[in-house]
Amino acid sequence: MAGFTVAIVGRPNVGKSTLFNRLLEQRRAIVDDQSGVTRDRQYGIADWNGKSFNVIDTGGFVTNSDDVFEREIRKQAKVAMDEANVLIFMVDVSTGITDLDTDVANLLRRTSKPVYLVVNKVDNAQRQLEANEFYSLGFENTFFLSSMSGSGTGELLDAVVSHITDDMEDPSLEADVPKIAIIGQPNVGKSSLLNALVGADRNIVSDIAGTTRDTIHTRYNMYQKDFILIDTAGIRRKQKVNEDLEFYSVIRAIKAVDEADVVMLLLDAEKGITAQDLSIFSLAARKGKGVVVLVNKWDLVEKSTNTARDYEKELKGRLAPFSDVPIIFTSVIEKQRIFKAIEAALDVYENRLRRVQTARLNEVMLKAIEAYHPPVVRGVPIRIKYVTQLPTHTPAFAFFCNLPDDVKAPYRNYLENQLRSNFNFSGVPVKIFFRKK
Ligand code: GDP
Ligand code: GDP
């Protein structure tokens, strides 16, 4: 499904990250580090009434340098207006309307996209009265919330997800063609990679012009393979104004991940993997996308016998627990292993489609279970009788057993490792469920 994105904008301390955390399916700890930039509060996936969407906390992208502060918030709001499907504009009843609130309100009034004004910290009846002041900002959709207690969030979410309709499913004609998104920090070599591919190949089928798309899809036919590359780099160049805005590239990356089957994550070999790379990596995994990691600019690394092996080991440590991922050392500039990278991505695409026959699955997995039994819980042995692969888009397996709630992470990991070592799921997140038989 094409990504549906909700952005929370507003000045600092109104409670954006409090709401953000509330909306996420998994609450994440916010680490209040010295710099004031907390990585994990930037984006996540929320679910409401069976509909899922991306939530972006624009506050997570604002750095605390006073001179550029107000300008930055305005910039975030502008990007959110361009990129998000729905905007939540948050204000704080305890401070009343500030000049910056009025500024942002004036900006947001220009968009045709739905804007929900959320008056936060409406914790009690007194504040309910005070909150009425904010109607003067003139937003049709106004909600009073207490993000801390959660009161009012249900109504807000109902309103937000009413914009997610079934026909948002991307009705693309090339449904069976593998889609590979090229993602990575600025300057890792994304454009160079695309240019190298264009240079090597005269058979680009078409630039698929997207009317509603914000990413560029280009269809290739090379090495006897048909595939689509989703490019976020080129677009960044088109919109020079926002070129160095981290928020802008992140929101584009999230969209590209949503549209892709496989994410090709480029790293700069000299810099290594960054926190932002890891966030995108785990987002891709949680969305069930395939992943290939390219360690680019490998030409710049001084090498001895074990350099690649050691590098890979260290990198896999960072990617854990999902470390069964192809890692390719490339030099786009020297055209080294570019074909291999594309091949790896297409292999991952195939792995993601893999369906293991039930008989074969049971033969292998029951043997593995026999070799290493699940633990005994309260004197009762857990018995797994039967395994089946579920008919889902990305590989998922159900293990039928007597005490499904009592199988814990270590044994789950054992089963996943067994699946991975017996069937090739390299680069693919695998889901495992335990069900009552
Ligand atoms: P952000 O900078 O906009 O992301 O704001 P935060 O989420 O970090 O919140 C700023 C402060 O407001 C924190 O101390 C929160 O605990 C507090 N806060 C957030 N929501 C509420 C609320 O609904 N009621 C009250 N009383 N305080 C809140
Ligand atoms: P993007 O921002 O990710 O699209 O990165 P670019 O493709 O614009 O590349 C940024 C810079 O890195 C350019 O100067 C490239 O020439 C350089 N570059 C890209 N790939 C490689 C590589 O494999 N090796 C080296 N040494 N430089 C590279």
Plain-language structure description:
This protein is α/β, with parallel strands linked by helices. It folds into three domains: about 5-165, Rossmann fold; about 180-355, 3-Layer(aba) Sandwich (Rossmann fold); about 360-435, GMP Synthetase, Chain A, domain 3. It has 13 helices and 18 strands. The strands form four sheets. It has a seven-stranded mixed β-sheet with strand order 8-9-10-7-11-12-13, with helices on both faces. A hairpin with a 2-residue loop joins strand 2 (about 45-50) and strand 3 (about 50-55). Helix 2 runs parallel beside helix 8 (about 245-260) and helix 12 (about 360-370) packs across helix 13 (about 410-420). The longest helix is centred in the N-terminal third of the chain and has 18 residues, at about 65-85. It binds guanosine-5'-diphosphate (GDP) (2 copies).
Brief write-up:
With 437 residues, the chain is α/β, with parallel strands linked by helices. Helices cover 35% and strands 22% of the residues.
Question: Descriptors for this entry?
Answer:
437 residues, alpha/beta, Rossmann fold, GMP Synthetase, Chain A, domain 3, seven-stranded mixed β-sheet, 13 helices, binds guanosine-5'-diphosphate
Number of strands: 18
Q: Give start-end ranges of low-pLDDT stretches.
A: 26-39, 169-173, 201-213, 236-241
Beta-strand residue percentage:
15-25%
How many helix segments? 13
Strand count, sense and barrel status of the largest sheet are: 7 strands, mixed
Give Rg in angstroms: 24 Å
Q: Number of domains in the coordinates?
A: 3
The CATH homology group name of the largest domain: P-loop containing nucleotide triphosphate hydrolases
Fraction in helix: 25-40%
